[in-house]
Design goal:
223 residues; alpha+beta; Heat Shock Protein 90; 2 domains; 5-stranded mixed sheet; 6 helices; 5 strands; elongated
Length: 223
């Protein structure tokens, strides 16, 4: 029975790993299509609007075209932000610490949330799988903070020690009652937190989640 349970756990682990890998491949594909096709099309639209403004003599018409140009420019920036979220180029090129710092900065800039980033210890590069998993965990935790917590402040910390790496995301929001088991996240509608647990498990990390109503939330990953 013990061998059968272990075999089932290994099979589930492989299955979740395959799903996670497929998700990342799809995100990369979508990011590439957005960058190569959609963003370029909106840039072309913006340029045509700029040319049209030079030929229109009516002031009201010029103002309408200017408003459309501004809308196109905002759309380009939103698409670029979405592309970065789908495929974090900072992570690939500059490493986990820079990617996390940029994540904290962009989250602060685009939402009513002050995110403080801290790094301690001597940074070192990790495997692509580990860096991507830690980044996605931080990304999901901050997304949850923005969407559900009503927090005004959050923090994102990463600490490099000799035998361990710790990452923590905390906020001063509403908090919630933490289920006794990760399997209870899905029925409760917390699919993002279930995904966080799965990503931590895939890289052999230990995840701790502390929260209480009115006392904020703290998520910690130890690898």
């Amino acid at each position: 029975m013990s061998r059968k349970v272990r075999a089932a756990q290994d099979g589930l682990h492989d299955y979740i790993g395959a799903i996670t890998s497929a998700q990342e491949e799809e995100r990369t594909r979508l990011a590439r299509e957005l960058h190569d096709d959609t963003i370029q099309a909106v840039i072309a639209l913006k340029q045509r609007l700029q040319l049209a403004q030079k030929t229109v003599k009516d002031q009201a018409g010029k103002q309408s075209l200017k408003e459309l140009e501004t809308l196109a420019e905002q759309t380009i920036e939103n698409l670029r932000r979405l592309t970065r979220a789908l495929r974090p180029i900072y992570l690939e090129d500059l490493g986990l610490v820079t990617a996390l710092e940029m994540l904290a900065r962009e989250t602060s800039q685009n939402n009513h949330l002050a995110v403080d980033f801290q790094k301690t210890g001597r940074e070192r590069r990790l495997s692509r799988e580990v860096e991507l998993s830690l980044y996605r965990i931080a990304q999901e935790a901050l997304n949850n903070t923005v969407k559900h917590s009503n927090a005004s402040r959050a923090n994102l910390k990463i600490a490099f020690e000799d035998s361990e790496i710790q990452m923590e995301v905390g906020d001063n929001g509403d908090g919630f009652a933490v289920p006794n088991s990760p399997t209870e996240f899905a029925p409760a509608g917390h699919f993002g937190l279930l995904g966080v647990h799965e990503r931590a498990d895939l890289i052999g990390a230990r995840l701790e989640l502390e929260s209480a109503l009115g006392k904020g939330t703290r998520l910690k990953v130890r690898l």
